[in-house]
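WARN  no MSA supplied for this record, continuing single-sequence
INFO  ligand: calcium ion
INFO  echoing inputs
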Amino acid sequence: MVPKIRKKMALRLALVGFVCFLILLVGVVATHSNNSKSSISQTSLPHIERRGLVTRVIDGDTIVIDNKNHIRLVGVNTPELHPTPEPGAFEAKQFMEDQCLGKKVGLDVDDAKPKDKYDRTLAVVYIDNGGSWANINAELLHRGLAVVLYIPPSEFNPYSWAG
Ligand SMILES: [Ca+2]
Ligand SMILES: [Ca+2]
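INFO  complex generated
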């Protein structure tokens, strides 16, 4: 009788141990996924009017979607690369490449002024962060990679992103 009871106890202990391990594992995975998302501010319900694949990053504030449409990020200005690179120009371009190049993005086109004088679409660019959207124009400001460039009329007030 005694060995049988011990066997039952051992089994029960093993089961409890396994359940503890599972709980721990779930906790570690949850913590990890939270950390990986916390770097970029999230917007739950942006107004996305168009979508496109980013095929080229020209500089920190200008991208090309679907190989043809030039998009100028509205409300912000990043340092120029040409004719001579200004301080921070490469950093801003690199950030845009890391965030959007080769990815599908959402656009909220400026209803008050859809294009600039160079025929580039003026828009807020949203990146898909696994189900939630991040305003990349605002992110450039938050990271100090861009400054506010507010040219009315505009649908957007970039000063409201800067805080
Ligand atoms: Ca610029
Ligand atoms: Ca719009």
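Residues 50-162 form a domain with the OB fold (Dihydrolipoamide Acetyltransferase, E2P) fold (CATH 2.40.50.90).
INFO  checksum written, moving to next record
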